[in-house]
Amino acid sequence: MNRHAAPDEGGIRHVAIIMDGNGRWAEQRGLPRLRGHHAGVERVRQIVEACPGLGIRTLTLYAFSTENWRRSAEEVGGLMALFRRYIRSEAARLKDEGVRLRFIGDHGRLDSRLRQLMGWMEEETASGTVLDLVVALSYGGRDEIVRASRRMAEAVAAGRIAPAQIDAALLADMLDTAPLPDPDLVIRTSGECRLSNFLLWQAAYAELAFTDTLWPDFTVNEFAEILAKVRCRERRFGAVPARLVRS
Ligand code: FPP
Fold this sequence. Notes:
By secondary structure, this protein is of the alpha/beta class. The chain is built from 7 helices and 6 strands, in the order βααβαβαβααββα.
């Protein structure tokens, strides 16, 4: 089966989330921005835990974008420390719960301690079959497509593939997300209605849901409500609804 083809039924199995609003949450409380990110981690725990019960098999979280490197050194350093702490503190629990953790993005700019932990965590949880948890770290959709294009150009230059063999399926196989299905739904919190360079290729047919709730206030209840609403929508993938097709 082609994992990247439009599915022929409206099941929501892969949800991708742009966890926005941590900074505003903290500012509203007169707290430093990092406190918002700390509160955001608690929500990550709760949403991850709820996924299997809500029928979600893959959850992709936008944790740090290629653009986020432009933030202050203090915030970037604080976020990196938070990611390290999350991996150390969650490793055992995620493994026990059958969660397989994967990271996507360009990890060349991440510090070596974090990269080591990420590699260790991916190996530790590799046998998990309940939920694929994908964390996008130093990730940008355009950057991912550029890196994939470079890989294809290298394969052509080395004579491993002919230019005529390049098609959508081959490009999808060169992306960081190659082993994963495309997202069925992208949720963004905090009232912004943009994709902000997240899963640009993979979200081609995804349903989109936006909520004003800031990420640290995003509850499992609201997540379940969004899923219920979206599951009622009809996904057509460019085709005509079956009831309108004349036999
Ligand atoms: C966007 O809010 C959020 C981020 C840049 C960081 C997201 C990170 C977490 C939720 C922490 C942990 C994640 C994992 C996977 C352990 P913002 O800072 O842009 O908020 P603002 O738009 O209100 O300023």
